[in-house]
Design goal:
By secondary structure, the protein is of the alpha/beta class. The chain contains nine helices and nine strands. An eight-stranded parallel beta barrel has the order 1-2-4-5-6-7-8-9, surrounded by seven helices.
Length: 267
């Protein structure tokens, strides 16, 4: 097993065709022919999504990033969960924002996809940061919630991880708040449909886009403006190799181990 790499968020001047800016948070170790690999909601093909076991599985699979979804509990604790509803992940009626962290801690967030005899608790963002610090970079997706940006930034600062994270959201206003307070943290806009009108948006350092519509032309235009393109969610050999061929900077996948094996075989 190779030594787990720690990727620092840096701006590196690189030679590109005329009129092309430098890409954000480039990594000198990154091969120009292979995208970085982000484990979607943790390595969610290997462990229940957005849990500590999924994060640890992403680290074990040597993903470059782990992507997590963050919401706020009724008592203001940032926790990991993709859905607003608790029904799918915890088999509980109601919405996460209506429960305190203590109430959520009694639920099993892994029984729907793991060994039902072993309870998997909902992790806090603080626990996730602790698990990842010095071991893997993080793509923190912010879900809805008034004041969530401030709470998340406070934790990132407390763990001294400003150079180990990127923050993404479907909300431009959310990204603007992040940039106002922490302009050096890379921010990504999540798009499920073409967003050409946003390519020059100053608050966006990278685009996290659906594999359904992304094109090589979109990626070229983004690169000319110094922005990266991350493609989601690519879980099959065909989809992963297609994303690589398009020139994606990062693939977001439930199967980071599969991505590694394919990219190693296909330089």
């Amino acid at each position: 097993m190779k030594t787990i790499r720690l990727f620092l968020i840096v701006l590196i001047l690189i030679f590109l065709p005329a009129g092309t800016a430098s890409l954000p948070f480039s990594d000198t170790e990154q091969s120009s022919s292979s995208p970085r690999i982000t484990a979607h909601r943790g390595a969610s093909a290997l462990a229940p999504e957005n849990t500590l076991p999924a994060i640890l599985a992403a680290i074990e699979a040597e993903a470059d990033f782990v992507e997590i979804d963050v919401r706020e509990t009724a008592d203001g604790i940032p926790v990991l969960c993709h859905d607003a509803s608790l029904l799918r992940t915890a088999k509980k009626d109601g919405y996460l924002q209506d429960y305190t962290y203590e109430e959520l801690s009694s639920l099993d967030f892994g029984g729907w996809s793991a060994d039902p005899c072993q309870k998997v608790p909902i992790p806090t963002l603080a626990q996730a940061l602790e698990a990842c610090r010095g071991r893997i970079r993080m793509n923190i997706e912010l879900k809805s919630g008034e004041g969530l940006e401030e709470a998340v930034l406070a934790l990132i600062e407390a763990y001294n991880m400003e150079e180990q994270v990127v923050i993404s959201s479907v909300s431009l206003s959310c990204l603007e708040k992040i940039k106002e307070k922490k302009p050096d943290i890379p921010t990504g806009y999540i798009a499920s449909s073409p967003c050409l009108e946003l390519l020059q948006e100053e608050t966006v350092d990278f685009f996290s886009v659906s594999a359904v519509w992304v094109t090589a032309d979109f990626i070229r235009q983004a690169h000319r403006l110094g922005k990266e393109v991350h493609i989601w969610t690519v879980d099959t050999p065909q989809a992963l190799l297609s994303a690589k061929a398009l020139g994606a900077d990062n693939v977001i996948t439930d199967c980071p181990d599969l991505a590694w094996s394919l990219f190693a075989q296909k330089p």
